Task: inverse folding
């Protein structure tokens, strides 16, 4: 029998039992997509955090990842994932704005043929791309870029997910949405709302889902 890498699999507060308790909590909070919950249960969130706080990985709360950024709470990751999917179980091309530590990317990856992830903070970009590659995620392409203009030459996208809040929805992201595609992002300043945009031909439908709290959507690259 091969040795199990307990660092990856998790022990104690990062064990599978702890992850399963988190999934039950998310189910009670209203996450309905069982496939998303299954992916959450298998994804080692503790590996995307500094060791000193990894014991909090399966609490349903956001945590610092450096550079003034946070890893979103598991509920938010699950909610945004099921919203970008809608009634679909798989998406061809997906754009993620804000790679951060890479946890949302890891949850999105199984649902995408191709996942394109944009990050504006260079140390986070390098750390996340290395981590996800080492963990064996092969369908993710990364770039260091200002997410406000998306990734035009890779589009159009069947799903777009943004993990930072602009004051208003960037027109460039709407234009990169494929017919039938879904864009999910927080919108607003001090008061933010999670917003879903769906495309039907030349028509775009906007729906406010719930209140949200994200870091602001900032321009420029931070090295």
Result:
């Amino acid at each position: 029998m091969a040795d199990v890498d307990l660092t990856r699999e998790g022990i104690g507060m990062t064990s599978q039992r702890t992850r399963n308790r988190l999934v039950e909590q998310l189910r009670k909070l209203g996450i309905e997509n069982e496939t998303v919950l299954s992916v959450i249960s298998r994804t080692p969130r503790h590996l995307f955090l500094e060791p000193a706080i990894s014991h909090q990985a399966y609490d349903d709360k956001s945590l610092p990842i450096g550079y003034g950024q946070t890893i979103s709470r598991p509920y938010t990751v699950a909610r945004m994932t099921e919203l970008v999917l809608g009634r679909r179980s798989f998406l061809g091309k997906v754009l993620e704005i804000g790679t951060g530590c890479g946890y949302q990317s890891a949850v999105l990856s199984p649902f995408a043929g191709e996942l394109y992830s944009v990050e504006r903070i260079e140390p986070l970009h390098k750390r996340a791309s290395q981590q996800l590659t080492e963990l064996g995620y092969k369908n993710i392409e990364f770039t260091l870029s200002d997410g406000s203009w998306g990734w035009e030459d890779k589009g159009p996208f069947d799903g777009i997910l943004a993990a930072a809040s602009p004051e208003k929805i960037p027109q460039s992201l709407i234009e990169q949405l494929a017919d039938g595609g879904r864009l999910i992002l927080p919108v607003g300043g001090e008061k933010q709302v999670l917003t879903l945009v769906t495309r039907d031909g030349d028509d775009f439908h906007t729906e406010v889902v719930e209140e949200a709290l994200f870091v602001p959507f900032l321009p420029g690259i931070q090295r």
In short: Strands lie at 63-66, 69-71, 91-97, 112-119, 140-144, 157-162, 177-188, 192-200, 203-212.
